[in-house]
Amino acid sequence: MDRAFTEVQMIASAEETVAAAGMLHRIAFRVATARGLYDRVLSERYSNQLWLAERAFIDAARTELGYGCSP
């Protein structure tokens, strides 16, 4: 995940795309930690945040590429 975030930082020209990738990276780390250390409820809470962060990144990347937000 670190490598993917670094690659986005290198090629993205829009700050929104980089910010969305950074949030996705942080949430993915939290999900992995929650799954390893805490109960399932906390893991599910972070998993929901992960899907929201993923959608935000996809929308930002699509907008930067000129495709607009996904339906």
Explain the overall architecture.
The protein is mainly α. It has one domain (2-65). It is built from 3 helices and no strands. Helix 1 packs antiparallel against helix 2 and helix 2 (15-37) packs antiparallel against helix 3. 13% of the residues are buried.
Helices and strands in order:
Layout: H1 2-11, H2 15-37, H3 40-65
Helix pairs in contact: 1-2, 2-3
Helix content: over 70%
Instruction: Compute the average pLDDT.
Output: 86
Give a count of the beta strands, DSSP E runs of length 2 or more: 0
Number of domains: 1
Order of helices and strands: HHH
The global form is elongated
> Beta-strand level of the residues, as a percent range?
under 5%
The structural class is: mainly alpha
- Residue ranges: pLDDT <50 for 5 or more in a row? none
Total helical segments: 3
How would you summarize this macromolecular structure in one to three sentences?
The protein is 83% helix and 0% strand.
List the main descriptive attributes of the protein structure presented here.
single chain, 71 residues, mainly alpha
